[in-house]
Amino acid sequence: MGNFSSIPWQSGGFYKGAPSVIFSAEEECKLAGNFQFTVVGRGSKHISIREAEDCLIKGGYKEFKLQLLSPKEIIFIFKHEEDYLRWFHRRRWTIKGNLINLTKWTPEHSSSKDCPIIPLWVEVSKLPLHLHDHNVLYSIASSLGKPLELDSNSVIGVFPDRTRFCVEMDVSISKAPKIHVRLGAKDLWLPCSYENHTPYCSSCSRFGHAPKDCRIKGPENLTVAAPSKVVEDSPFPDLSYLKVDNFIGCMDIVPFVPLSHNHFDDEKPLVTLPGRKDDCWIHPNMVCGLEGHEKDAQEGAETPIYCHSEGEEGAKPFINEPKGSLFTLSGVRSQGRTWHKLDRVLLNLDTMASFEDLALTHLPRANSDHKPLLLFCLDTPPYGAKPFKFLNAWTQHDSFLATIQASWSSTPTIGGMRGLVLKLKTLKLALKDWNSSHFGNIFLKLKEAEEIASKAQETYELDPSDLNCEGAQLANAQLVQAVNREVSYWKQKENVKWLEKGDTNSKVFQAFVRGKRQRLNINHIISSEGRGLSFQDYIKQEYISHFQKAFKSTPCGNMEPILSTIHAVITQEDNAFLTSIPCMEEEFFLGLPITKGYGSTFISLIPKKENPKTFDDFRPISLSTFMSKINTKLLANRLKTLLPKIISEEQAAFQKGKSCDDHILLAKEAIHHLDKKTFGGNVIIKVDMAKAFDRMEWSYIEHILKGFGFSDGAINILMANLKNTFLSILLNGAPTGFFKMERGVKQGDPLSPLLFIIGGEGLCRMINKHMSSHFINRFNVGSIQMVSQLIYADDLIIFSKGDIRNLLKIKAILREYFTASGQDMNNNKSRFYTS
């Protein structure tokens, strides 16, 4: 506890009726000297002292002290000037997602104002050689403010005709374009150039905007064209006698100027009306070419926006990665050639909601060291019609079930699968009409509900009767219902459990969903010939050509070496179980042909990596109809019970009770024995199949099924869904092309993965046969026999001896399998490992 008894008493009596204490200016200056290396930080949200302290410690700052002035305001007190300068130079820091702006502390500190004194780099040119003295340069810098430090190049005199130094100066005062130096009887003028900094407004004493953009500053007169009528005089009376004291934006009364014979866009009279910076209106806004947050692209050019639905990584900015070169600035600086990504385009949420698509391009630079930024704002997406999608919000409408029942009962139940397709097609058209006539636009309905609820509440407050109370409660209930429909819409759009993870139905979240959809759009692709395509028509042509070729069947080679290793293990009882008709007779299990509407499917492309360049960088996923999935799911559940008879232990994918964990342990064990002494050494071969699911030939799968003992009826049912598949590729959400699938299995279909591993069993058994017959020498781990291979879906690892004869035999076996099945090896991802 401090004791005041030893401190001299400095009472000043009373001043205007209040007790007074007097300190001299020298005493105040002495007290403020203890805080000469103090910086004030203002955050965008509540500041944590612990997080700020951890940030400073990680940055290597030595002795400092932190104190909170308010939840969003903190002071940094440094003991050493170099720490103070290093922290203050940057002016803005982001600590755990909290943007903190720094200003200098002064005795006149106020939470509502920013101190205009900042460290600023100044370059002085046309400097005589003999003035390159530290004391002289200190005097020159003192004419602008408090000198802080010299540039390293100026210290060693790299550029004799100029110098660069940092000074603390008041940016609220206009900067001097030159400095006067008196050399004896001569006058010398030294031009000055200043680094760019955040603009300072002297009207509100804040950084962030120029005085001309200040909202606190009084209204200015704006000159605009007077409204006029063409051809005829105004039929309205003169309203110039009306006066208003308080002008509101967009509500000004302007004198009418009639023009009786103006048939062309001639020059019109100008009038002056009061301008006003007002918060009454929120307009879409964008700011282009911002420079300041210097951050190399390798470190991530943008600050991530965290969205709980996306996990801990945080979301990318709402606009796609810009096209063109990576950096926006390049030039020679004192440190040499530099490249940076400094320029930005900032959009508020209203602007983003006004356009369907936004794209940014970095154009080539000309005279400036900065590159121009070109922003494309598309009001309507040029991608074509969208496929029908069921909205979960429809189920919350009162007339939804009645619409379903009316459409379903109006269509006759005939024709089996063909009749079901017809009923669903009729229902789709009925739902589209009902959505337009009854359900309506979710967002417009929400705005209408908000207005009605607001008016009903006002009416009740003016006249609190029972009738008005009931009306207000009803309007509020309708508003809650409209909000729930919007929440259901965005929840379905994002397709994750977002509300449970902390996200709210805000404009930020909605903009994030739009941005995510835009990032998945394909606006540029490299064709198979190596040409870059940007026009949608060219992309569509390449799109269709690529996937028609990918799913086009090719002649199969000799299957006898593979089929000789396949033995019949499926009994007549297994075939009867697989082909048995469910409780109600269904055409599918009778083996009848499947209609186009039943087997047609959309293909959605999922990027395999960031910034895909070609269509090979996408994974095609089948969006099969629920009708086909019902049958394939039933078949998959039946086929799973037969897999233990068919699939070898070396395969672990898509089987209940198996995982890749055992494979990982076996692979690690093999690596430990990789350098074991043996003739030719040991080798591990990792084979990656190129487009494995898309390339497997149907005739090969049928021969493998036949070899295992499946009956013709069972094979027909298992392959029916594949053989009657017609594909339409979704390009930016719009269907493109319509062609028949001729090979491959559908990723996203319940049955297809099982057919794929059955097809892969041919290679597995062929390798096991040659290992058992010692045609291929095994991997040597001592007295224990090592597994010959490990297979997980399209990934294959082979363990064998590494002599040249052994490797040539393995190569021949793989070639036989590739020729028979249509598969191929991805050389870029395949590897081999030796000791």
Structural summary, described in words:
It is extended and about 110 Å long. Among the domains are: 11-104, Alpha-Beta Plaits, CATH 3.30.70; 117-201, Alpha-Beta Plaits (2-Layer Sandwich); 286-378, no CATH class; 532-834, no CATH class. A hairpin with a 2-residue loop joins strand 4 and strand 5. Helix 7 (400-410) runs antiparallel to helix 8, helix 20 packs antiparallel against helix 21 and helix 20 (698-708) packs across helix 22 (752-772). It contains 23 helices and 33 strands. The strands form 11 sheets. A 5-stranded antiparallel β-sheet has the order 4-5-3-7-6. The chain has a 5-stranded antiparallel β-sheet with strand order 9-10-8-12-11. Strands 27-26-29-30 form a 4-stranded mixed β-sheet. The protein has 835 residues and is of the alpha+beta class.
